[in-house]
Amino acid sequence: MKKVRNMGPVLSLFALLAKSSISRILAVAAVMALAEGALFRGQIRSEAIISFEGAINSSHISAIFLAALGVIFLILARTEGLMGDRSRSTLMRLRLSGTSIFLIKAVWNLLCLALLFIVQIWLVIGMAEVHARISDPGYDLPWMLFLAFYRVRFLHCLLPLAETGKWVCNILLLLAFSVAAAGGIGKKNFVTLALLFILATCWFTNLFGRGLADAACCVLYAAGIGVGVWTMRKSLAADQ
Amino acid sequence: MLEIKALKKIYYNTWGGVQALKGVDLKIGPGEIVGLFGENGAGKSTLLRSILRLQSFEGEILLDGERICRKNISRLSFATCEHSFFANLTPESHREFYRMHFGCFRDKRFEALMSFFELPLYKALKSFSTGQKNQFEVIMALCQGADYILMDEPFAGNDIFNREDFYKVLLGILEPGETIFLSTHLIEEVERFISRAVLLREGRVAGDITSLELEEQGRTLMDYVKETCGYRADRVGRALDRLTEGEEQL
Predict the structure, then answer these.
(1) Do B56 and A79 touch (CB under 8 A)?
(2) Which residues fall within 8 angstroms of residue A15, CB to CB, at 6 or more apart?
(3) How many separate domains does chain A show?
(4) What does the alpha-carbon distance between residue A92 and residue A98 come to, in Å, rounded to a whole number?
(5) A5 — contact with chain B (CB < 8 Å)?
(6) What ipTM was reported for this prediction?
(7) What is the DSSP letter of A145?
């Protein structure tokens, strides 16, 4: 009971973050779903026979997902940046330490970004179902999804199935984005935010012809996390 | 007791440093209503921000003999014209948040002040007018349940009637142990409201006087401020003379 009561301030800060940004994040996710749905529908209607993987590739779903990821990343960084600047004197008077506040922000960001990933995976499953119903009702849906998630790079990065390296990379990506956004959108942090987003774009879209090696990506994301934590510690030290 | 000992603050920039506070010593006891005055750049905001640990400084600031830290900082509240609330949230959400974090939150006072100033409870603060935002900022500082309420130009943007209302309400609701430390330029307006005036000039305490002492000396607070800050009343006259002299020659 005492533990639950001690969690009160943590949960209330969590609720504060949620109230500040959840409506905009859900709106972005909804717009992403609508845009992807419309593009995918356009693709499977325009051509008579097109494979599910082909429809996914030609409807540029990855670009829309990345745009949504970028917008959510900016919303989180801006909301938390404003909170850190304007409401700093209020946050400084709370019983929670600066590190705790930073961690709560990072966890909230992680949940928001994970939500986007989950929405995207569900959308792809929904699209596969629609595609199967239109093109071939007798098609084995789980098999089609399994193949798509293995063959299409974007989908494979989104849900790497049995590839441990890519799972690690994805977790580090989410952590790096969460930590960077928790630091706000100041002049110095903006470079980290931009670099992380460019890195994620390369990772998901095979931008340079050949995908970035998992190990290289992991190292760069880990460096992003390191920079975020270092920036936080520096600003906390300045407050002391 | 809030004790400030040899407080110094230097703002460093590319070309060197600007010393905003040059050794401020001050003691503020419980129940006092202290006005903090001084020209722009005198160090008023720097002093308040240092007390709240919003910036680093040299010297010592003690609250009942203890350094201000996370344990006792909730005994201080702050209202600023820059607004420290969460703009996306409603006053009701703020109440919930403050209740959770500040055990002594004054619910009754919050309700009374919100209804007195006719502020909506369920509207995001970003849609409030500047005057309403200022009112809400001060309301939260008064309702936090803090012993020391610091205010930095809290009424910038409010009309005269509004400010007058606030002073009256403040005097009516404050409890004996509550201390106000108010930085403002509205010297004549707050004269009747404060019990003590502290004057900062070029980063130092240039004057410190109680309302009672002023009354005994038969001086107004404005006279005291002008004398202490070396206000040259003839400066405007001379400047105008110089300007018109040139025109006459033409």
Answers:
(1) no
(2) B96, B97
(3) 1
(4) 8
(5) no
(6) 0.74
(7) H
Q: Do B86 and A83 touch (CB under 8 A)?
A: yes
Long-range contacts of A138-147 (CB under 8 A, 24+ apart): A144/A52, A147/A53
Q: Which residues of chain B have pLDDT under 50?
A: none
Of B53, B85, B100, the CB nearest to A90: B85
Contact A80, A181 (CB under 8 A): yes
Across the interface, do B101 and A89 touch by the CB < 8 Å criterion?
no
Distance from the Cα of B105 to chain A's closest Cα (Å) equals 13
- The domain segmentation of chain B, as residue ranges, is 2-245
Of B54, B82, B100, the CB nearest to A12: B100
Burial class (CB within 10 angstroms; exposed 0-12, middle 13-18, buried 19+) of A23? exposed
Domain coverage including residue A65: 2-239
Contact A94 B85 (CB under 8 A): no
**Domain B2-245, CATH among 3.40.50.300, 3.40.50.12780, 1.10.418.70, 3.40.50.620:** 3.40.50.300
How large is the C-alpha radius of gyration of chain B? 20
Nearest CB to A19: which of B70, B84, B93? B93
CA dist A161 → A105, A149, A164, B44 (Å)? 29, 8, 8, 60
Chain A residue at shortest CA distance from B124: A20
- Cβ–Cβ below 8 Å for A89 and B86: no
Q: How far apart are CA B221 and CA A12, in angstroms?
A: 45
What is the predicted pLDDT for the residue at A239? 58
A1 or B82, which is more confident?
B82
User: Whose structure tokens read 């990855």?
Assistant: A62
Whether A51 and A134 have beta carbons less than 8 Å apart is answered as no
Cβ neighbours of A16 in B, within 8 Å: 86, 89, 93, 97
Count chain A–chain B contacts defined by CB atoms under 8 A.
68
Q: Do A87 and B88 touch (CB under 8 A)?
A: no
Of A9, A93, A238, the CB nearest to B56: A238
Residue A231: which pLDDT band, with cuts at 50, 70 and 90?
Answer: confident
Helix (H, G, I), strand (E, B) or coil at A150: helix
Over residues A70-85, the mean pLDDT reads 87
| Per-residue model confidence (pLDDT) at position A159 | 86
CB atoms within 10 A of CB A199: 19
